[in-house]
Amino acid sequence: IERYKGIIPALITPYTNEGKINEAVTRKLIQHLLSKGVKGLYLSGSTGEGFLQTVEERKQFLEIVVDEVQGEVPVISQVGAVDTNTCVELTKHAAEVGADAVSAVAPFYYKHGSEQIKQHYLDIVNAADIPLIIYHIPDFTGTSGSIDFYEELSKVENIIGLKYTSKDTFFMQQLIDVCGDEFMVFNGPDECCIAGLAVGAHGAIGSTYNIMPEKFVSLFNHFANGNIAAAKQEQYEANRLIRKLLDYDFIAFEREVLTLQGFDVGKPRKPLQQLTDMERSQIRKIVEEFPFL
Ligand code: SI3
Prior knowledge:
Elements lengths: L6 E3 L13 H13 L5 E3 L11 H15 L5 E4 L5 H14 L3 E5 L8 H12 L6 E5 L1 H4 L5 H8 L4 E6 L4 H11 L4 E4 L5 H6 L4 E4 L6 H12 L3 H18 L4 H11 L16 H13 L4
Helix pairs in contact: 1-2, 2-3, 3-4, 6-7, 9-10, 11-12
This protein binds ligand SI3.
Ligand SI3 binds next to strand 8.
């Protein structure tokens, strides 16, 4: 559990101009993020565009990341998909290639009852000897488990935590209370990072940690050291940027910022927002306003 405590970028998947996975830029971006003190990498989630990729691409990307990280920090691979079989296949692969954990959103598109969703998670965790971090993101999946639902899953061996992407901190706090301190909860909304930590989150997984890892590593460290005023200051500064980011599709925005920072990560996959030249130049101006980028 100690290994996972901290700031974990939900890694952008770098693409070439042809839209294929860009191995060289992936390796360069990982080294950069590690040098800034991130405590893990979370792949193929919303930010990583796992849902817009083939199963083969998801496997290929994980293999590159595991190879580059060399065990320095935990690698968590998001294996969620509409169907259980794909999740099971990706879980087996993740275990084989040496990922530290898998994570999965609830099955989406079809409406399932909580028993089916529970079974889906059990099928994933029983597929291989690798820990599972459940991914709660009700705004995207349309599904929100109850406190009892998560409490029950938290007791299952090898289900080690929850990535919590919602701004309802009361719900989060109750989950932490009933699931116990050995069950890790990661804050999802970066703009509420300090709020999540305040109610007991063990760490934070998010998209903007790709573009401003130092800000949030600093926030996390200040918080851990009890320096709440300094942590709050970091959150405020980050949120002035996030407020502007939210005028765009966050993935398109972050890809553009990374490109300006020297990481040629390419464009998001359609149907995600494709920036116009005008939007690109607006983003360039925003980046100039924020020296920490
Ligand atoms: O890639 C992932 O799966 C995430 O980490 C999602 C992450 O929680 C993001 N949430 C959403 C809804 O996209 C946040 O990092 C978010 O982009 C950020 O807080 C800006 O709103």
